Amino acid sequence: MPSHPSAQEVAGRKGDQRHAALAGSRAWTIIAAIVSLLSAVAQAADSPRIQRLEQSLKSEGTKATDAFWREIDSAGTPLIERVPGRADRMWVTFLWRQTAHRDATDIGVVGIFNQTPWQSHDGLTQLTGSDVWYRTYELETDARAPYAFSWPEGRVTDEKPLRKELRVGGMREIFPDPRARKQIPEVFFARETPVAEDYFEGPDARPERWLQQRDGVPRGAVAEREVTSRILNNTRKVAIYTPPGHSKKNGPYALVVLFDGLSYLQSAALPTQLDNMRADGVLPPVVAIMIDYIDAAHRQSELSGEPAFGRFIVEELLPGLRGELHLTRDPRKAVIAGASRGGLAASYIAIRHPQIFGNVLAQSGSFSWAPKGEPDGALLREVAEKPALPVRFYMVAGTWENPDRMLRYSREMRDLLEKKRYRVSYSEYAGGHTFLNWRATLPDGLITLIGQQR
């Protein structure tokens, strides 16, 4: 989400706290008005189905809307229609039905982390003379993205919100779409009960062929344990997936180490995907070690190129598990993976310990990061200064992510690695900074790096 000056910062500039608060209030009003104007302009691209409904209302009245809602209730939301003559574009229409129990005035649509074409809380428009509120966007047909509805804080009294978020214009309460056809268990990089987050996908979105449990496919086991580090002087939880039939007599097993473990366990459905990929013969039997972080402060520090954290992985965690789980010692069969700050950490650790990890799977890696006071892109400088190492990279980033940070530095990292003759697979997807998108690209990354049909 965008950050805004605090009242204290404004007061420091103006020298008067009261005047600053008033100025801040006026600024919020102006920003909100601008957002509303831009939203109105964007709303000109109406859905053909909404246009037909508008015409039907003139002759059929409520019969037209009743039939429309029966159609929508059956199909689910949002409404998705291809743009005629443009094979790679679609209209996505978010819909809300006005009820006597909830005033839809000032309802908006929002996306997780605000990395979507709808910025902040784009308002829905009421179709005149009906109970239909809608907002249409023209998007890529391969897009996949989470969304939710929002109201001003305190406006909704008949349902508990999923969460609250500070958006342009003030605090908003976030609610699910009761007609959503798809949901993902989202944990937001945290150890907490997953929240069912609504999402949509276009007709050409990357297939998720290994996502659902299949009858007749043997399932691996997941065991959670606490691991204490003397190097870091802390204790964390680690979830370990072992494939069906795992035994010390078999193997050695290919290895995947992932950061933000709960997100890969829950949101990315990693155990189910590994079961199915093994059953289809595209991956060998894999042991996956999903490492949680202790809290947000530890995550920021440990996943930001902290050498001691890499030492914990290679000197404490893996030696303790290697014999127990019969893990490979071949770096070409070992992957270290992560998303966002986790993608940065995975890259740092492989570059510093290539004798352990020969593969990096970085999803929207935070390659712009640098220690305070240094220019952006600290890892890029470290890579540039070293000779090329026997490490292969699989990298992805979203075209809806911050173009000056995530996209720019992902592309610069790709270019640098290619220049130094690393093996690099790089792609971009239509989506934002979410595990919904990383879940879909994870199988391709694993197949590229350690697949049996490479």
Automatic annotation (TrEMBL):
Coiled-coil zones: none
InterPro entries according to UniProt: AB_hydrolase_fold, Enterochelin_esterase_N, Esterase-like, Ig-like_fold, Ig_E-set, Mycobacterial_A85_antigen
Primary localization class, coarse: cytoplasm
Keyword Hydrolase: yes
Record-annotated Enterochelin esterase N-terminal domain positions: 92-188
Record-linked SUPFAM superfamilies: alpha/beta-Hydrolases, E set domains
Cell compartment(s), UniProt: Cytoplasm
Keyword Glycoprotein carried by entry: no
Keywords of this entry: Cytoplasm, Hydrolase
Family to which this protein belongs: Belongs to the Fes family.
Name under which the protein is recorded: Alpha/beta hydrolase-fold protein
Organism: Steroidobacter flavus
